[in-house]
Amino acid sequence: MGIWRGKVPLSIITIIILAFVALLYTERLGPLSSKAIFRIKPCARKSADDKLVDVNGLNYAADYLFDFDPDQCSLNHGKWVFNRSIEPLYSDRSCRFLDRQVACVKNGRQDSDYRYWEWQPDDCRLPRFDPRMMLRKLKGKRLMFVGDSLQREQWQSFVCLVNSVIPKGKKSMKRGRLHSVFRAKEYDATIEFYWAPFLIESNTDIHILADPKQRIVKVDSIAKHAKYWLKVDILVFNTYVWWMSGLKTKTLWGSFANGAEGYEELETHVSYTLGLRTWANWVDSNVNPSKTRVFFTTMSPAHHKPADWGNENGTKCFNETRPITNKRHWGSGSDKRMMSVVAGVVGRMKVPVTVINITQLSEYRIDGHTSIHTELGGKVLTEEQKADPYHFADCIHWCLPGVPDTWNQILYTHLML
Predict the structure, then answer these.
(1) How far apart are alpha carbons 240 and 196 in whole angstroms?
(2) Average pLDDT, the chain
(3) Distance in angstroms (rounded) separating the CA atoms of residues 165 and 336
(4) Which residues of 152-165 are buried (b: 16+ CB within 10 A; e: fewer)?
(5) Which residue has the higher pLDDT, 24 or 324?
(6) For residue 315, is pLDDT > 90?
(7) Helices first, then strands: H and E counts in the chain
(8) HSE-CB of 209 using CA atoms within 13 angstroms
(9) What are phi and psi of 238, to 5 degrees?
(10) What is the rounded distance in angstroms from the CA atom of residue 337 to the CA atom of residue 223?
(11) Which of 102, 172, 186, 356 is in the most buried spot, having the most CB atoms within 10 Å?
């Protein structure tokens, strides 16, 4: 058959062009609808054509409009990338809700690089925290962080991340010994913290016992704390560091009225398992998953042994200014057996719990701790104390702004699903 060489009628060409333009218009507009933006997946596949778009006056990667493929992308595997071009959303001077304990700049820290490291997963890009989008998502809802002082840091980080876009007079803070509430009045939203270092009850919940050997956990009781968690829309739990005060934990069933004679000493991972099962049973019995979302933040690592990262002559985390780059690094401050306990307990629950795995990415951040730029007993360290980092450097808590902001960036990504 010969090739037809006649001219294509103008009407046909017009139809083809119009169809192509319509298709292009649909492809461009579809992903940018508000519904699509609010249904972003936890992490977006990288693209060579990634560009920045402006959302609410802040720059965000357009690639978070792409679908997330859990088989190709994990938030847990990646590296810290230095990016000084992006300023943190707050500072310890602009956000008055930070405890002095974690306000490292106020406490004299001179280097600032620790504030400019971004977590970059290997096969995807983590959406940046947009405070306005987050507040709109929280409209009419209660978000509560439950746990120890590290969970309190995550709460303060979250409050400071959204605080910058809330006008004066449109917010309030009520601090309590156990329960603290930040309110964004315009959104009728609260961001709360509840102090329960073991989640279950203990004899050191309110009047803290400085000597870990005197602490007793009541592994079968949680109602005293949990009554504050009812009717909360988003619960974010954590418990780890308070369990790590020894190889064994004093464990009690029944009433504290039995006193010292009532407890048994169990291996810590055993009592941890019992305590988490009590928490899991409460969640399964009291949480309606159609109304409440439940998260569990994994353990935040401590960095007390510089030999873990090859600094044989170092003193704890003192004077560390860069993250660890060895992807195989896992230090002695993170207990894999305890990590397995969390996975085992959560995996058997009826109510779905989203685990925010912050352990590996935090393991690399030996530079992010408060170190000597902190306080002790309500007072900033003296010059004499700062000169003795072996005894006074805090390598458990983190400077803010800092690493806990990334934990909240991950939480934000899940909440926007």
Answers:
(1) 11
(2) 86
(3) 39
(4) bbbbbbbbbbbbeb
(5) 324
(6) yes
(7) 11, 21
(8) 13
(9) -165, 140
(10) 27
(11) 102
SS3 196: coil
At 123, the pLDDT band (50, 70, 90 cuts) reads confident
Map tokens 């060579």 to a residue.
Answer: 48
* CA gap 46, 52 in Å, rounded: 13
**Residues 6 or more apart from 130 whose CB is under 8 A from it?**
55, 56, 58, 60, 412
Closest Cα partner for 129 from 157, 171, 98?
157
Determine the residue type at 67: D
Q: Which residues are catalytic?
A: 149, 394, 397
The structure tokens 């960036």 sit at: 409
> Quick one: residue 188, left, alpha or beta (phi over 0 = left, psi -120 to 50 = alpha)?
left
Tell me the backbone φ, ψ of residue 33, rounded to 5 degrees: -65, 150
Report the distance separating Cα 236 and Cα 105, nearest Å.
Answer: 28
Q: Which amino acid is at 237?
A: F
Q: Which two tokens stand for residue 370?
A: 């408060």
Q: Using only the alpha carbons of the chain, give its radius of gyration.
A: 25
Q: Which helix (H) or strand (E) holds 58?
A: strand 58-61
> Could you count the other beta carbons within 10 Å of the beta carbon of residue 79?
16
Residue type, 23: L
Q: What angle do CA 306, 311, 316 make, to 5 degrees?
A: 30
Residue listed under structure tokens 């030999």: 307
Question: Torsion over CA of 345, 349, 352 and 357, rounded to 10 degrees?
Answer: 0
CB–CB of 251/216 below 8 Å? Answer: yes
Tokens of 301: 């690592």
Distance CA 343, CA 88 (A): 32
Q: Who contacts 240 (Cβ-Cβ below 8 Å, separation ≥6)?
A: 148, 150, 298, 299, 300, 338
d(Cα 213, Cα 137) in Å, to the nearest integer?
Answer: 44
255 pLDDT tier (thresholds 50, 70, 90)? low
